[in-house]
Amino acid sequence: MRIIKNFSTAMTLSLRQSRAVQLLFVGVLSLGLLVQTGCDSESNLVEVPELPTPETPTAPSGLEAASGDSEVELVWDTVDPVDSYIVSYSVYRTTSSGGALPEEPVATGVSGGSYTDAELENGTTYYYRVTSTTGGGEAESEASNEAAVTPFAGPPDRP
């Protein structure tokens, strides 16, 4: 059996006996199934109707940031899944307050309500916002509140 995802071969499953197969494709909007009944014969392509685009998830809230030596620890309140779609998070960082989100996040696919951003420059103030995204990236929320933080090195050890 070949699984056709968005009209390109995604995977082939070989079944030696009659079996029920259940597959979950997160973020796939169209899917086809091609069943091969013998060594050289193939049945017709069975197309599964296009799945609806999920609702846009709500924005994460309660974003807070804590500084460390060359790193920042972010925490936020997670959101509920949307229409049974798994929700992940994208983290955006800038060095100026407000304005539009950068084109590229510093992290995508974050699975929980926390993220550590490392290898930062001590003494520089960073501004963070987080968005929630459905598992396949079909829908992204508005940005969370902004959190400002300045990483710093700890005090030197006493002699």
TrEMBL record:
InterPro entries registered for this protein in UniProt: FN3_dom (IPR003961), FN3_sf (IPR036116), Ig-like_fold (IPR013783)
Domain of life: Bacteria
Protein name as catalogued: Fibronectin type-III domain-containing protein
Residues covered by the Fibronectin type-III domain: 56-156
Organism per entry: Longimonas halophila
Region feature (Disordered): 48-69, 133-159
